[in-house]
Amino acid sequence: MIEETMEEQVKWVEGLIAQYGESRTSLIPILQAVQAKYRFLPEPVMSEISAQLGLPLSSIYGVATFYAQFSTEPKGRHIIQICDGTACHVRGAKELIERVRKDFGLSPEKNTTDDKFLTLETVACIGACAMAPAVIADGHIYGQVKVEKILAIIEEIKEGDVQ
User: Fold this and answer.
1) pLDDT at residue 94 is higher than 70
2) Which of 41, 52, 105, 118 is surrounded by the fewest CB atoms within 10 Å?
3) Residue 119: pLDDT band with limits 50, 70, 90
4) Do 81 and 126 touch, CB atoms closer than 8 A?
């Protein structure tokens, strides 16, 4: 997954700390940079951040697990978020979730495909209730999504997928 040597990771983290600063308030931007690079927060990198900032690893994990933007598990190249808030739920979000899970071998415990192509996330609300059921695919919002539409969205993503 991570194809860098430990020495390269240490240098990269040093660069982040030089860029964002050594204070505790720099932790979130540093973690955001790590998340952007790896699509998750690898433990060895978090350990290096802990060592360089002089913060307990538990504090870093506390921040990483508190904010929904961070993941400690590897994510796919493409993120599909299906809103399962009240409006979306009553208008068919459950059917969308079940179909994507079935077609891609996912489950409530397994959100990412083995080939790291896709991660499925259910979210409580995206604030697009008038468009229910709503889906965010790689940052693009789609409304009134039915099963055929979500499958077409994923197919379009597959066609443009670059590994």
Assistant:
1) yes
2) 105
3) very high
4) yes
Q: Token digits for 102?
A: 């079935």
Contacts of 30 (CB under 8 A, 6+ apart): 13, 16, 17, 20, 49, 53
- Residue 62: count other Cβ atoms within 10 Å of its Cβ: 13
Start-to-end C-alpha separation, the chain: 13
Consecutive H or E run containing 88? helix 86-90
The structure tokens listed for 126 are: 């995206």
Superfamily holding 78-160: Glutaredoxin (3.40.30.10)
Q: What does the alpha-carbon distance between residue 41 and residue 118 come to, in Å, rounded to a whole number?
A: 17
> Alpha-carbon distance 18 to 46, whole Å?
16
Please give the mean pLDDT across all residues of the chain.
93
For residue range 37-84, what is the model confidence (pLDDT) as tens digits?
Answer: 998 999 999 999 999 999 999 999 999 999 888 999 999 999 999 999
Report residue 121: phi and psi, to 5°. -125, 135
pTM confidence score: 0.78
* One-letter identity of residue 42: P
Question: How many angstroms separate the CA atoms of 30 and 17, rounded?
Answer: 7
